[in-house]
Write a structure and sequence with these properties.
Elements: E1 6-9, H1 11-27, H2 29-45, E2 54-55, H3 57-60, E3 68-72, E4 75-81, E5 85-93, H4 99-108
Length: 111
């Protein structure tokens, strides 16, 4: 891929990010803003290096190499990329078991 890719957030991922920020802001607006900045900064780097994330281990077990992820502790940002776009699909709390969620949501949405 040459040049910068466009970053596109799915409605689902944008909603998940909003829920994360809103939840943190209940206790600390400053921490919520910091978390949002960390996630946006890390995701923004994907525009120059879309293959920079690792394959999602739970999906790789099934031979699925369509999806990648970047870790912004404690969250996992899962995406796929094509010729000139990085599609942000979900933002999941890595502290919970995400295997069944990933399989169900990614296949259900045909992402």
């Amino acid at each position: 891929m040459s040049g910068d890719c466009r970053i596109v957030w799915s409605d689902n991922a944008a909603s998940m990010l909003d829920e994360i920020v809103t939840s943190i802001a209940e206790d600390s607006p400053r921490n919520a803003e910091a978390a949002l900045d960390r996630i946006r900064t890390r995701v923004g780097r994907l525009s120059r290096s879309p293959q920079g994330g690792r394959y999602v281990p739970e999906l790789l077990e099934f031979g699925i190499r369509t999806y990648r992820e970047v870790i912004v502790k404690p969250w996992r940002v899962i995406y796929r990329s094509d010729k000139d776009t990085v599609h942000i699909l979900v933002v999941i709390d890595a502290r919970r078991n995400v295997s069944s969620y990933l399989l169900r949501e990614l296949y259900r949405r045909n992402l």
